[in-house]
Amino acid sequence: MQDMKKNMLLGTMAASLVLAGGGTALAEEMLPGTDDVSSANTAVDASDGVASGLGEADASQGEFSYDQTTITPNDVIRDVFRRATAALCNATDDFATSNPLEWKIAVSGDVDQAFTAAVDELASESSVKQIMTCTCGGNPADGKAVVTADVKGIPVSYLLDRADARPEANTLTFVSSDGTELAIPIAYVVGRHGVISYQVNDEDLSASVGGNNQLWMTRTPANYFIRDIVEVRVTSEANPPENPGEGMEYPNSPNVGILNAEIG
Q1: Would you say 250 and 221 are in contact if contact means Cβ atoms under 8 Å apart?
Q2: I need a labelling partner for 226 at 20 to 30 A (CA). Which of 14, 27, 73, 104 fits?
């Protein structure tokens, strides 16, 4: 009987997870028949090494590491996001690619200094480069519809400053070259560090997500990442649009999945 009790315990498990930020966590040994760590915790008490109903035993522990600063290569981004263009990153067309730096963007509406300028002109005046994540809102645990990239673009806040947006303005409508329009509250876009990107991982967008430019924002589902923007319209709305994803629950933000594990 004692041998049977001992045989019911598993060895040490070590795994790596992908999660926002970085650090380590401890995972307790799981017993046969348990589905996850939480149920294993019920069966094995790591504080005193007692397996419930089985007598005393040593509790094994494994170290988990996690990190979401690793850049996704452009060829992987291309493979992931171009296979479902109707659903991901607000891509409804296979956009033709020109020189993204020659692409012109107009800022109009409730502003005192409306203008139209080429991307290279705007980039020479104000451009930022920052690590950002693009994730499908319905991406499941360990799903592939999530990428982290080094994004270079023009801050939307700069466009508002240059156009001298009026204080009462509360809405931005991004207009794509194919006529698609996306309205978002100004405070949301600025608060999510919104940029109109023209490079991903030091290459034109044609090497990754496709198109000539694309709106990127932090902590926002990828279907709001409208592409090939030709106009940013600033307006004052009595009923501004809801924040992207308002009232919706996304099952896996940030993305989490076990990359590898060893049981010995």
Answers
A1: yes
A2: 73
Q: Find the length of the chain.
A: 264
pLDDT band of 87, cuts 50, 70, 90: very low
**Peptide bond connecting 240 to the previous residue in cis, omega within 30 degrees of 0:** no
Instruction: Find out whether 60 and 29 touch, Cβ atoms under 8 Å.
Output: yes
pLDDT band of residue 231 (cuts 50, 70, 90) is: very high
d(CA 212, CA 171): 24
Residue 126 Cα distances to 132, 155, 195, 198, 229, angstroms: 18, 7, 11, 13, 17
Q: Is 5 helix (H, G, I), strand (E, B) or coil?
A: helix
Nearest to 149 by CA among 220, 70, 210, 243: 70
Q: Are strands 195-200 and 146-155 parallel, antiparallel or unpaired?
A: antiparallel
pTM higher than the cut 0.70: no
* Separation between Cα atoms, residue 42 and residue 40, nearest integer Å: 5
**Are 119 and 104 within 8 A, CB to CB?**
yes
- For residues 42 and 164, which has the higher predicted lDDT (pLDDT)? 164
Predicted confidence at residue 165, as pLDDT, reads 98
